[in-house]
Specification:
2 domains, Methyltransferase domain-containing protein, 7 helices, four-stranded antiparallel sheet, seven-stranded mixed sheet, 252 residues, methyltransferase activity
């Protein structure tokens, strides 16, 4: 099944533990380090638009790209409430098209890990380089192999809320470094609060090493700048579950 269809409805509920505002401050601080205080900024894999809205609030002219129509519908509902002039595009990040270049590109919540192999990742990096202004900045995060192997592994994670519950079954395959997880959702019916509807989705993410990321960044024509442990300014460690990477446009 297509990922983030039925899950879109309850995505924000289950992601309420993610410190989006802190991440937005972090991204904003880095952008300011490169004299990007305003102007066009693209978010790849924008989902329901939480980060897109936060960066728009900080003064950026935001564009959000996602391949889930269900997620973008929720993002556009947020746009109506906030009044921010955000452009949302229903596009796959492997083939996104813009009307012109942007000052920066950001991608959070391990969207990069949904790219299944080196070729797909390289293609996205090439597109980012193509649509960045000269010396423009690309900031993204990714889940590490350590997280998939040691933290998620073959674990089953479940969470129950009053209006919805989920069961998240992980299966990490070391031979191809792919984490497949089956997501089972029980969502309360809006018509009958005693009725819960069951939905199932299958997601796959690929584990990449930082060295591989560096290699593919440079292969795509970008310049690798730095990597940090999960929204800090500390160097990545072996036990880092999430790593943030900064790259820069280096000629088309």
């Amino acid at each position: 099944m297509e990922a983030y269809t039925s899950f879109a409805e309850v995505y924000d509920t289950f992601m309420d533990n993610v410190p989006y505002e802190q991440w937005a401050d972090y991204l904003h601080d880095i952008l300011k380090e490169y004299d990007i205080f305003d102007g066009l900024v693209l978010e790849l894999g924008c989902g329901t638009g939480i980060m897109t809205e936060l960066l728009a609030k900080k003064g950026y002219d935001m564009i959000g790209v996602d391949n889930s129509e269900s997620m973008l519908e929720l993002a556009m509902e947020k746009r109506i409430k906030s009044g921010h002039d955000i452009l949302y595009l229903l596009q796959d990040m492997q083939a996104f098209e813009l009307y012109g270049t942007v000052k920066a590109v950001v991608s959070v919540c391990d969207s990069i890990n949904y790219l299944k192999d080196d070729g797909e990742l390289t293609e996205v990096f090439k597109l980012v380089n193509n649509y960045l202004d000269p010396q423009g900045i690309f900031i993204f995060d990714f889940n590490t192999e350590y997280k998939y192997r040691e933290i998620l592994g073959d674990r089953v994670i479940a969470e129950e809320r009053e209006e919805c519950s989920f069961i998240w079954e992980n299966d990490y395959r070391t031979e191809d470094k792919t984490n497949e997880y089956q997501l089972t959702l029980f969502v309360q019916s809006q018509e009958d609060s005693d009725l819960y509807r069951k939905y199932q989705e299958v997601h796959q993410q690929k584990a990449y090493t930082l060295e591989k990321i560096k290699t593919l960044i440079e292969k795509a024509g970008l310049r690798y700048i730095a990597a940090y442990d999960a929204y800090t300014k500390k160097a990545p460690m072996y036990t880092s579950g999430r790593v943030c990477v900064i790259a820069q446009e280096y000629g088309k």
